[in-house]
Amino acid sequence: MAKLKLGVLISGRGTNLQALIDACADEAYPAEIAIVISNVADVKGLERAREAGIRSLVINHREFESRESFDEAVASALNTHEVGLICLAGFMRLLTRNFVERWRDRIINIHPSLLPSFKGLNVHERVLDAGVRITGATVHFIRAEMDEGPIICQGAMAVSAEDTPETLANRVLEIEHQLYPLAVRLIAEGKVRVAGETVPYVDIGDPGGPLINPRT
Ligand code: GAR
Description:
By secondary structure, this protein is an alpha/beta fold.
């Protein structure tokens, strides 16, 4: 079967991109990265793409007059590379409603909290300030509002008394690196659908981690 073509959008170091690159290196994985697009030049994520021999390009939002024209340039690059699924991987720009609607249920994002809690930035500081006992990561389809949309899967872990924002970020990142390739695989295998504004449950057996719970 033809592999699902991914367009990965990044703004920085790209460790989630790396997790996808590593997953795609397996012949049996049902997706491949067609293009990596960064809105920031010279970031580590671009180096990762180059090292893996994956096509990449910089579309610098500062060179565009409006959000619409930036999104238009991104859409055109994604179409050129026949992308079937857009993966936001630390992509720190809001996409326009028009763009999101055009790619409805074909754009996913990874966020370092158990959504719908702790949307936005500085998640781990806010998790500690709120005193929650459990945190984690979420992969979801995106909507025009930031960090909104049907949840595909989540991974959770306990917050310890010794945690700092840095230790939390590192441990949540380990979950992210398992979760993102898993979500992409489930989508590529046709196991994920959106009904209303949720993703209905399908039993996929042991997902490979006690607190990784792909509700698909
Ligand atoms: C990740 O922790 C990701 O969840 C977060 O940015 C980081 C990117 O790291 N994304 C968001 O906060 C989106 N709202 P990476 O560049 O190493 O993948």
